[in-house]
Amino acid sequence: MTIASLAMYPFIHLQPAYNRLWEGVGEQLPFEVPPLSWDVPPDVACRRDDLLVGQTCGWPLITELAPSVHVIGTFDCDVDGAVDGTYRSVLVSAGDEPLSDILARPELTVAANSPDSLSGWISMLVVAASSEVELHAVEWTGSHAASVEAVRQGRADLASIDAVSWVHIGDTELSVVGHGPQVPCLPLVASASIGGDVVDQLRRAFDAVVSNPTMADVCATLRIRGFVSRQLADYEGLSVLAQLG
Fold first, then answer.
1. What does the pLDDT read at residue 245?
2. Lowest-confidence pick of 31-45, 192-206, 230-244
């Protein structure tokens, strides 16, 4: 029994497109694949020994998951600022005040989804550190959508949001006032128990599917314009952000 999960962007309206994408991947493989799991949280799925494919955040990958997974690659995302499988988080606020002024507020409160989120927290720390600002008041929200809501309702002055999540949330009330550092997009991983030959097959299958013209509508819905094969080493450079943040 194996598990497959692509649930890091768990918006209900995206699930049919992800299911079709994964079906296409399965059609490229010489073995049967399980359907995508939407009930198991992605962080739980990525810790299972029977993980065939999972999607995780770059930060827990390098701080915790590295010994137990193979990195397959990442999607090249079709969002502003994305280049060759890298992207930047967006910093959002309720007004159009300059980011420097927002960071200078004496009682600044930021919203963040999780302490181990590369886009939601680590990127925020890096931006704050570049302005020599220490973040003391944080509302931990549990998701990027909830962080957007915290800013919209005035409970937080600022939030750092994954760029793909931001597009899918489709908020028109908040303003983008800045960006986080350029980092690799979310890694696709497999359990370390999966053989290297299967990892190579998965890389070829993902590449074939996202470049297939018949999948153009699916990929457009998911904001995927390509697949980039990656190794763990492509993410290990993120550790320098801990020194900046």
1. 53
2. 230-244
pLDDT tens digits for range 184-232: 999 999 999 999 899 999 999 999 999 999 999 999 999 999 999 999 9
Structural domain of 222? 3-85+184-244
Give the chain's radius of gyration (CA, Å): 18
Q: Which residues of 99-113 are buried (b: 16+ CB within 10 A; e: fewer)?
A: beebbeeeebbbbbb
Residue of 10, 8, 53, 44 whose CA lies nearest to 209: 53
Q: Where residue 212 sits, what CATH number does that domain have?
A: 3.40.190.10
Answer yes or no: do 165 and 116 share one domain.
yes
CA distance 58 to 118: 6
Amino acid at 226: G
Q: Are residues 33 and 57 in the same domain?
A: yes
Any alpha helices (H) in 85-191, and if so which ranges?
A: 99-103, 123-130, 144-152, 163-169
Q: Any idea how long the chain is?
A: 245
